Amino acid sequence: MVRRRPLPRGQLYFEPVKTAQDLVETLVGHRAREGEQVAKFEQACAATFGAGNVIALPHARVALSMLLEHYRFRPGSEVILSPVTIADVVNVILEHGLVPRFVDLGARTCSVDVECLENAVTRRTCAILVTHLCGLLSDMPSILAIAERRSLVVLEDASQAMGASLNGRYAGTFGAAGFFSLTTLKPMSSFIGGLTLTDDPELARYLRRRNSQLRPVSHRQLAGLFVRDLALHAASSKRTYTRSMHAAVGRAEQYFPNAVREFQRGNLVPWRRRPRAVRRALPAYLFRRFSDAQALMALRALMHLEHDNATRAQLVDTFYRASSPAVRNALPIVPRKAVSTWWRLPLFTHQPDQLKAALHRDGIDTTSTNLICATAERAFASFWRDTPNARQYTNKMLFLPMHPNLTPAEIGAMARYVEAHQDFLATGAEAA
Questions:
Q1: DSSP labels for 45-77?
Q2: I want to staple 161 with a disulfide (CB 3.0 to 4.6 A). Which of 113, 171, 211, 391 is the partner?
Q3: CA 363 to chain centroid
Q4: What's the pLDDT at 267?
C-alpha cells in the first residue's frame, strides 16, 4: 500500500522567515558592533555543552586545519582516524605533512573499532581523530585510556553527534578539542560554518587569533546561501513534498545519481566547483569569518537542539518497538549508557538498491551516506587498509527519514513498510 503523502529523506533545520529577518537586521543595519552576536552564540554554546572555550570558525575542516597548525606535529607523524569521512578531512591531514592511518569501524556500531585502533598505534602516532557518526557516541572512555597510555592528542569530529553525551559529558568535550559542522543539513545550521570546543586556554587563544585574521563572509555570499537553503527547504519539506515530486526524485536518482547527491549536499549547480578527491590545500573561499547573521540563525537552532534531539530519540524508540527482531538486528548497536541523538537512522542492508526502490514505491524516500570510505578511494590508495565494515557503511547502508517534524504514526507506518521488505536487510552476522 502506497502512502497518500510520501515522506522525504530529510528536512532542513531552517526557518525561512526568521532567517530573512536576521539577514536584514545584521546586513542592512549597523556593522559597527560586528561580532557581538557571534560572542553571544559562543557563550551560549559553552554553557550548553559545558566547554571552557567555544570558537565559531568558518568550517569544520578549517577548524581541523587550525588545530593541526597549533599542535605542529612532526612531519610524517600518523593520525589515526576512521575511513568514513569527507575527502577534505584526509586532505587537511596530508596538507600538514601528516600520514592518515585508517582504522575500521566496529561491527554494527557506526564507530571506530577500539581494538583495531589500539593495534594501529605506532611510535609515529601523534593523534587520534574520532568521528562520531549518525548521532551515536564512540567509545570515548576506551579511546581516552589508549591515548593517555600512549601520550596521544585526541580530537573529535562531532558534526553528526551534536548533543550526544555520556554521563553528562557531550560529544566534542572528551578530547583536547572537538569540532562541529554547522552546514545546511545539521541540527544547528548557519548556512556554512563550524564550531570548536576546547578547555585549553592556549589553544583557544590561538584559534581566536587565527580567526581574527580572516576576511568576513560577504553579504552577497550570505544572500546566495539563503536562496539556496530556501530552495532546499521547499524541496524537502514534508508539507510540500508531493507524490509527483517524490516520483521525480526517484527518476532523477535513477538517471543522475551524482547530481542528486551533490544537490542534497547543498550544491545546487553540481558541475561547478566540484573538488577533486585530493586537494592538498583548502581553497581560500572556505576561510571566511563567522558572521553575526549566522550566529543569530545558529543561536535560534541551539534553543531547539535539546528538544529536537529528544524528539528524534523518541521516534527511533517508536520505530524500534514497532519493528520485528529481524528489523531490529539491522539497526546499529547503541552505545551503553550513552544518550544518542540519531541525526540519521541507518539500516544495514545486503541489497540497498532493491530496498531503496521498494521503499520508494511505498512512498518512503531513503538515502545513502554522502561520506566516502577513504580506503576505497583511488586517490588515497597509498594509505590502504582493509576496512570491510567501513566499506559496508558507505556502500550498503540506507538511511530512513528521521526528523522532529515526523509523527509517531508515520514512524510506525515506516516500520511496517521496512518489515515488508526485510529480505533485503542484513541481519545478525551479515551486518557484522
A1: HHHHHT-SEEEEES-HHHHHHHHHHHHTPPTT-
A2: 171
A3: 25
A4: 61
CA dist., res. 311 & res. 328, Å (int) = 20
The C-alpha atoms of residue 56 and residue 92 are separated, in whole angstroms, by 19
For helices 60-71 and 201-212, angle between their N-to-C axes, nearest 10 degrees: 120
**87 in a domain, yes or no?**
yes
Higher pLDDT, 175 or 25: 175
In tens, the pLDDT along 179-236 reads: 999 998 899 999 999 999 999 999 999 999 999 999 988 888 898 999 988 888 888 8
CA distance 52 to 105: 30
| Distance separating alpha carbons of residues 19 and 28, to the nearest angstrom | 14
Which residue type does 311 have?
T
- The answer to whether position 354 is within a domain reads no
Phi, psi (deg, nearest 5) at residue 20: -60, -40
C-alpha cell read off for 198: 576546547
SS3 of 216-253: the string is ECCHHHHHHHHHHHHHHHHHHCCCCCCHHHHHHHHHHH
How far out from the chain centre does Cα 41 lie? Answer: 20
Average pLDDT (276-286) is 72
With bands split at pLDDT 50, 70 and 90, how would you rate the model's confidence at 275? very low
Q: Which three cell numbers stand for residue 154?
A: 585526541
CATH number, position 151:
3.40.640.10
Residues 330-343 have a mean pLDDT of 93
- The structural domain count of the chain equals 1
Higher pLDDT, 251 or 197: 197
pLDDT of residue 31 exceeding 70: no
Residue 45: pLDDT above 70? Answer: yes
Name the amino acid, one letter, at 122.
T
Buried b or exposed e, range 96-134, using 16+ CB within 10 angstroms: bebbbbbbbbbebbbbbbbebbbebbeeebbbbbbbbbb
Distances (CA, A) of 56 to 35, 59, 122, 279: 11, 9, 33, 24
- Using CA atoms, how far residue 164 sits from 24, 58, 170, 328, in Å, is 33, 23, 6, 21
Backbone angles phi, psi at 23, to 5 degrees: -65, -45
Q: Note whether residue 249 is domain-resident.
A: no
**Whether the Cβ atoms of residue 420 and residue 405 lie closer than 8 Å to each other:** no
| The predicted structure's pLDDT at residue 130 | 98
